[in-house]
Amino acid sequence: MIYDTIIIGSGSAGLSAAIYASRSEMDFIVIEKIFMGTGQIAESERVDNYPGLYGENGYDLGEKFRSHAETLGARFIEGEVTKISPAKGIYTVYLQDGSEFETKTVIFAAGASHRKLGIKGEEELSGRGVSYCAVCDGAFYKNKVAAVVGGGDTALGDALYLSKIASKVYLIHRRDEFRANKSLCSKVAETENIETVMNAVPVEIFGDKRVEGIRINHNGREEALEVNGVFVAVGTVPGSEPLSGVVNMDSGGYIIAGEDCITSDKGIFAAGDVRTKPLRQVVTAAADGANSIYSAEKYISQLSVRK
Ligand SMILES: Cc1cc2nc3c(=O)[nH]c(=O)nc-3n(C[C@H](O)[C@H](O)[C@H](O)COP(=O)(O)OP(=O)(O)OC[C@H]3O[C@@H](n4cnc5c(N)ncnc54)[C@H](O)[C@@H]3O)c2cc1C
Predict the structure, then answer these.
(1) At 230, which helix (H) or strand (E)?
(2) Which of 9, 26, 127, 180 has a CB 3.0–4.6 Å from the CB of 4, allowing a cystine?
(3) H or E stretch at 153
(4) 191, 170 contact by CB (below 8 A)
(5) Which ligand 1 atom is at minimum distance from the Cα of 113?
(6) How sure is the predictor about 153, in pLDDT bands with cuts at 50, 70 and 90?
(7) Residue 306, pLDDT above cutoff 80
(8) Element (H, E) at 66
(9) With respect to CATH, is domain 2-114+236-306 assigned 3.50.50.60?
(10) Ligand 1 in reach of 267 Cβ (< 6 A)
(11) Is the CB of 49 under 6 A from ligand 1?
C-alpha cells in the first residue's frame, strides 16, 4: 500500500499532524522510535505556557495529545526511521528492523535534543532545578539565583531573559570570550544582575531534593556557586539524520523550512523543533503539525491533477 502520508515522530508536532491527517481522512501511519512516546515534553515537570492547560504536567500533556490522535483513529508503529528515499514521486521510509513503507508524502517531526554537559547531578536533578529551556522554566526562578552554562547566542539570550525574573544570574563559560553576537554581549555586560564567570568548566551540579549549587573548575581552581537552578545552553542536536542528503539543512543540521513546513523536496514536510525556526515550543510544534498536513494535502491534490 502507498500511504498519503507517513508521520515520523509522535511528539507535539507529529501528534498534531496525526489529528489533522485523521480529520482530513488521509491514509497514514505514525512511526515513533520510543514505546508509547509523546516526545520531549514528557520530560517537563510542569507546563505553564500551553493555552488552556495551565500547570499541566508535561507527561500528562503528551498523553492528552496522543489519546486525542488515537481517538480519531491514528495508527502507530514502533520503530526507528533510518533512511527516507525519494524515487519517482514516491518515498520509501526504511526502519532499523528492516521493514519499509511507501508513501506519497512525509511529515518529518523527529524533534531536536539538547546537548548535555554530562556531569554528575545533571541527570539526577533534571526537572528539579536543571533545565534546558529558559522560556519554559524561567518563571519558576522569580527572585532566586540561577546559573546559565554556555557562551553562544542561546546562552546569552537565556541569561538576559532570566535577569528580568531572577535576583541574580551567573553566566558560566569555558572560554575567555563569548561566541554570541556583539549586541548580546554588550547587553549582558550592561546588565547589573548578570555575573559572567569565564574560563570556568562545570564539574558537578549538587543538591538534595532540588539544585542547591554548581561546582566549577574556575581558572584551574575548584569552587562552588550557590544557585537554585542551572540552565544548560550548550547546543541542540536535531534528529534530521534520516534526511541527510535528501533535503536542504542549515549548518546546525536543522531542516530548512518555513511556516508552511515545505522543504527543498516538495513531498517532504518538516514540522516542529527539527526545522529552522525562532522559537521551539509545544505551541509552535503543534502549529507546524497542522500546517504540514495542510501543505501535504495541497501537494497531493496537485499530483492528482497532473495524472
Ligand atoms: C525538560 C523540557 C521542558 C520543556 N518545557 C516546555 C514548556 O514548558 N513549554 C513548551 O512549550 N515547551 C517546552 N519544552 C520544549 C518542547 O518539549 C518541544 O518544543 C516540543 O516537544 C517539540 O515537539 P516536536 O514534536 O517537534 O519534537 P519532540 O517532542 O522532540 O518529538 C520528536 C519525536 O520523534 C521521535 N523520533 C526522533 N527520531 C526518530 C526516528 N529516527 N524514528 C522514529 N521516531 C523518531 C522521538 O522519539 C520523539 O518522540 C520543553 C522541553 C524539555 C526537554
Answers:
(1) strand 229-232
(2) 26
(3) helix 153-163
(4) no
(5) 30
(6) confident
(7) no
(8) helix 58-71
(9) yes
(10) no
(11) yes
**Cell output for 140:** 519558576
Which residues are designated catalytic?
133, 136-137
Q: Which atom of ligand 1 is nearest to the CA of 127?
A: 1
Q: Cα(110)–Cα(7) distance, rounded to whole angstroms?
A: 9
pLDDT at 43 > cutoff 90: no
Sequence-ordered list of residues with C-beta below 8 angstroms from that of 179, at least 6 positions apart, any chain: 151, 152, 153
Position 89 scores a pLDDT of 87
Ordered by start, the domain boundaries in the chain are: 2-114+236-306, 130-232
Q: Which of 16, 30, 40 to mutate to test the pocket of ligand 1 (most atoms within 8 A of CB)?
A: 40
Distance between Cα 248 and ligand 1 center (Å): 21
pLDDT tens figures, 45-66: 789 999 999 999 999 999 999 9
Q: Let me know: does 274 contact 7? Beta carbons within 8 Å.
A: no
For the packed helices 153-163 and 182-190, what is the interaxial angle rounded to 10 degrees?
30
Residue 209 has pLDDT above 70, yes or no: yes
Rounded to the nearest angstrom, the distance between the alpha carbon of 237 and the centre of ligand 1 is 12
> Which architecture, in CATH terms, is 130-232?
3-Layer(bba) Sandwich (3.50)
How far is 13 from 212, CA to CA, in rounded Å? 35
Q: What is the pTM of this model?
A: 0.85
288 within ligand 1 shell (Cβ under 6 A): no
What average pLDDT is seen over the chain?
Answer: 95
